[in-house]
Amino acid sequence: MIAEQIVNGIVLGSMYALVALGYTLVFGVLDKLNFALSELFMLGGFVVIGSVGLGAPIWLAGVLVLVVCGLLGLVVEFVSFRKFTSPDAQVTAALSSLAVGLIMIDLVQKTWGGEPVSVPVPIEWRRANVAFFGMQIQVMKLVILAVTLVLMAVLHWLISRTAMGRNIRAVAESPAFATLLGIDVKRVNQQTFFIASALAGAGGLMFSLRNGIASSDIGFTFGLKALAIMAIGGMGDLRGAVLGGVLVGVIESLAIQFGFGKLGEVIVWALMILVLLARPGGLFGGAHTTEQRA
Amino acid sequence: MSQDILFITGVNILMAWSVYIILLSGSLSFANGGFMALGAYAAGVFTMKWGMDFYAALALAGVGTGLVGALVAYPALRTRGVYLILVTVGLSFIIQTLIQNTDYVGGVRGMTGMTGTTNWHVWGLIAIVGAGLFWLSRSHLQRQLDAVREDERVAASLGIDVVYLKVVCFAVGAGLAAIAGGLYSHYMVFINPDHFNIFVSIYVVLYVVLGGVNNVFGPVIGASVMTLLPELVRGLQSYRPLIFGAVIIVLLLVRPNGLLSFRLRTLGASKGGGA
Predict the structure, then answer these.
(1) What are phi and psi of B242, to 5 degrees?
(2) Contact across the interface for A270 and B90, Cβ inside 8 Å
(3) Residue ranges of the domains in chain B?
């Protein structure tokens, strides 16, 4: 049973990690919080519902989630971050993206209502199990894990191996020097927002596939936890976001297993506050090499 | 205008001021919804279960939450900017979840039976707090707070006890939020933890942002407009979050300091001391 809960925790944690990666990417590059990411996470499930409703097959719906959320990320960048470039504007940009998030919630509630909506996935998909070291594991969970791993691998490749990734790392290091080297900082910001938002959307897609529903309030109940996970892993630390996500996912699953129920939700926030006070650089290392810091 | 709208407007003004007081020292708190919950539940327990007098319960809830606020603030205020936002968001969630899991106050089912608040209490308190804040805005203390808000290191070099001022502001803000919560619970009769979710904290901060962050009246305007406008204009109610969000975004782009961003003439300025 405990092994099964640990697997559950890793699946849950991988979804947290996707959103946390988005938060940490944006923070690494711009030193700013993009609260709208939680709501793009929420939107992921609704994009699936909408596109399947319009007749798209499920794989296309998955691709659409990445594209639509990525494009919305560009809108967020334009509205809430483009103008607030000075270091003093940290809080202003955070508030502005929070307002964008509120609008997204409201629009979703206007379109689909306030109640959770079921995601049109064949029920066999969610029922199918495989035996794995004596445990029964839903195929869906393995799919989620596989997709998450692929996305993380792609992200790692993008950041560490491509010209775009090199530019992103340069801007994260110092926007001023990046500009001197001829890098278009605005373009790099847009790329960062697109990637971060697509990751958050993918997290939401996984979440809705696992639970079979999309709900307009998961942005604030689950999406915001990714914010805490980013802080636990170290703000701007990609590896920390993944490790932090899995750590928190496993802790929460075990808390449910041992009968703490909803009290488990306190753990992530308490851990975040402790980490911010004691080790502001994050739980895992903290001293960033260029490789780890997006 | 019905009594209820007047009451909610009053509570929102008090909450907006509680954020404003903390903001005076340069800290932005997303935990005031949580402090409101603490006050609402504490005052409820004092009157319902311990048979305490209404006013004593309110005062004790305010002072107690203020002390909790100070206790939390002392380490938390070592963090700044977005880090402090994260810590206070976390506090909000922790307080809500702890209340949900405390059976003594009804857990997720909530608590019921509190009565006693009238509009006179709320608006009386607004008059008192408003007078206090207006006096503060013309006092020497305000200039120390301005210094702390603008640049902590310079303020410290001028002999101002930065940590002390920040902790005091945080505690007073938390206490005021708690008293507003106590008034709220004794008007609504029934409360549950969902009444004090993270949205409450977010909305209150946005009221202050909307109204303007550098004078006493800004938060009042922000809170009243955003509470009253949807009630008064028919059809606007269902678009409240949409319009509110859009207004905040446009406002931040056009006037980053808020709608009513002017400084009250301080003691020094009125003597011709310049900026």
Answers:
(1) -60, -50
(2) yes
(3) 3-196
What is the identity of the amino acid at B100?
Q
Selecting from A33, A224, A277 the residue whose C-beta is nearest the C-beta of B82 gives: A33
Residue A51 in domain: yes
For residue B167, the model assigns a pLDDT of 93
Domain count, chain A: 1
Report in angstroms the alpha-carbon separations of B172 from A35, A99, B20, B25, B165.
28, 27, 11, 12, 11
- Quick check: is A262 in a domain? no
Name the residue range of residue A50's domain: 10-216
What local confidence, expressed as pLDDT, does residue A31 receive?
Answer: 86
Q: Which residue in B54, B16, B218 sits closest to B137, CA to CA?
A: B218
In whole angstroms, what is the distance from residue B166 CA to residue A170 CA?
Answer: 37
Give me the percent of chain B exceeding a pLDDT of 70.
92
Confidence of residue B41 (pLDDT cuts 50, 70, 90): very high
Residue pair A183/A167 in contact (Cβ under 8 Å)? The answer is yes
Is residue A186 a part of any domain in this protein? yes
**CB-based burial, A168-179: b 16+ in 10 Å, e otherwise:** bbbbbeebeebe
- From B151, B120, B132, select the one nearest B18 (Cα to Cα): B132
Chain A residues inside the 8 Å CB shell of B86: 33, 227-228, 231, 272, 276
pLDDT of residue B258: 56
Per-residue b or e along A30-59, where b marks 16 or more CB atoms closer than 10 Å to that residue's CB = bbbbbbbbbbbbbbbbbbbbbbbeeeeeee
Is A92 part of any domain? Answer: yes
The answer on pLDDT for A290 being more than 80 is no
Lowest-pLDDT choice from B79-93, B123-137, B176-190? B79-93
Look at residue A129 and give its three-state secondary structure: strand
Sign of the Cα torsion B84, B87, B93, B98 reads negative
Taking CA–CA distances from B251, the nearest residue in chain A reads A96
Residues 6+ apart with CB under 8 A from A281: A234, A287
Question: Which residues in chain B are closer than 8 Å to A39, comparing Cβ atoms?
Answer: none
Most B CBs within 10 Å, among A95, A111, A230, to test the B interface: A95
| A271 chain-B contacts, CB cut-off 8 A | none
ipTM given for this complex: 0.86
Pick from A90, A270, A273: CB nearest B81: A90
- Considering the entire predicted model, what is its pTM? 0.88
Token pair recorded at residue A270: 């308490």
**pLDDT confidence of residue B35:** 96
- Torsion over CA of A197, A200, A202 and A204, rounded to 10 degrees? -130
> Do B131 and B124 form a contact (C-beta atoms < 8 A)?
no
